[in-house]
Amino acid sequence: MHYDVNKVADLICNSKHAVALTGAGISTLSGIPDFRSPATGLWSRFSAETIFRIDHFYSQPEDFFSFAKEFIYTLADAKPSIIHNLLSLLQSKGLIRRVITQNIDTLHQKAGSQGVLELHGSPLKNYCVRCESCYSFDEMRTKINRDTIARCDKCQNIVKPDIIFFGELLHENVLQAAFNETEKSDCCIVLGSSLVVYPAASIPDMIKRNGAKLIIVNRDRTPYDSRADITLNMDLQSFGEELIDILKKRNIIGAS
Predict the structure, then answer these.
(1) Model-level pTM?
(2) For the chain, first and last CA: distance in Å?
């Protein structure tokens, strides 16, 4: 057993307002490819400049919808990973107050986490860029499986998922809520994030500035590793299994 996982358990259990910040690394455990891995990341197959630039979306929406048909509107079939389930359990025990995520896969909600702050939006809601008619995930999936471009039933303009594209501002209410939680936090655990995308990457700065504890668990190194109280460059599946085992032995969670 990794000694520092015990220290992670200590920090979380002794905190009064812990938050979690999650990135794509936790969802790769659910079979969802991440964006930046050199060999397997989505950007090794698709161009971020093409797929998620808002100006390109408006000029050539078929590029995005071709990508989305394969990688976004298949997310309904994905199952939460051990980390999603662990965070939901920790929240139910009052050990994690809020989950802040950079992911758009909705797996935290599937696992049972409440009040998830999705910094980059969600494909559960989709809206017409002209008349603002709303469409569900299932309605959008039907549209892109049928047509090259998802169009509004009422005005025939493009239907856009409520996810944040490059060139768009984050939803101010979500961002402010994330910052408010960070300001109140005495402990933050970062899981599966490279911490290179802002404003999510500013959260560790806020944590350390406020004198709170920072834990980073990620397969690869991040720019904040040297500033964290605990840094674990390890497989997230193994981390989750070890932390669950520790919490069971401490009778914090059930043995079942």
Answers:
(1) 0.92
(2) 20
Give CA–CA dist 222/233, Å, rounded.
Answer: 9
**Distance in angstroms (rounded) separating the CA atoms of residues 203 and 100:** 10
- Listed in sequence order, the DSSP H helices in the chain are 3-14, 48-51, 54-59, 61-71, 82-92, 107-111, 137-146, 172-184, 203-209, 236-249
Contact in structure between 123 and 162 (CB atoms under 8 Å): yes
- Residue 74 tokens read as 């298949």
Q: Model confidence over 204-248: pLDDT tens digits?
A: 999 999 999 999 999 999 999 999 999 999 999 999 999 999 999
The pLDDT of residue 41 is 46
Instruction: Give the model confidence (pLDDT) of 174-187 as tens digits.
Output: 999 999 999 999 99
Q: Which of 42, 64, 40 shows the shortest CA–CA distance to 51? A: 64
Q: Tell me which of 50-59, 94-103, 122-131 is least confident.
A: 50-59
Q: Point out the residues that are catalytic.
A: 120
- Residue 217, CA distances (Å) to 60, 86, 178, 196, 240 in order: 38, 14, 20, 15, 10
Burial of 171 (0-12, 13-18, 19+ CB in 10 A): middle
Domain ranges within the chain, ordered by starting residue:
1-32+79-120+170-256, 39-77+121-163
- CATH fold label, 39-77+121-163: SIR2/SIRT2 'Small Domain' (3.30.1600)
